Amino acid sequence: MYHQRTPIHLALAAAMLLAARAWPQTVATGIPDATAFGMYEHLFRHVVFLKHLADDKVAKGNTQTTLRRTYQAAANLTDAEAKLLESTSLNCVPTLNAIVAQARSTVQNAPAHTQSAPSSGGPSPAPRPELVTLENQRVAAVLACRNTLHEGFGDQRFALFEAFLTAHATTSQTSVRPMQPGPEPTAETVHGGRSR
Description:
Strand content: under 5%
Distance between the termini: 31 Å
Number of strands: 0
Shape: globular
Radius of gyration: 18 Å
């Protein structure tokens, strides 16, 4: 699916690129934090999406679905590990959504001359410092949630889980298998339709 690149997209992408240059290599797993950030943000959002999809099916009278157990079955997680993955995801995604909303607001409220797209062939303008700060907060939030999983799983089980994620990461949108992206998060998919 093609999305029109607006000044908001360009500003957020530039901030993310600038922030990625400063990300260190993760010592414990050998996966660069820039790679882990993208993989885990997607994971946390997908776990929340599957949970809400399962909750919706149950609310409509279907028996408990296996959607909430998708990662548990695919990654061979224990019950405790699956609960930790779900609770960590449910804690992480609202934080990420708040940061993204703040970044959107920052871009939308910027003076018009700072929102213009770069001319073709010309250099891209430097990202605004507040967007870089917000992107760094977003990265830090995802990596902190990843560390929560690492601490809860232990080194050996976390290494196995991260190997599973690395091997199965995909951007295909054909099913709700592990690591398949869901729709763009909304208040309904993140908060179950409840306002906070």
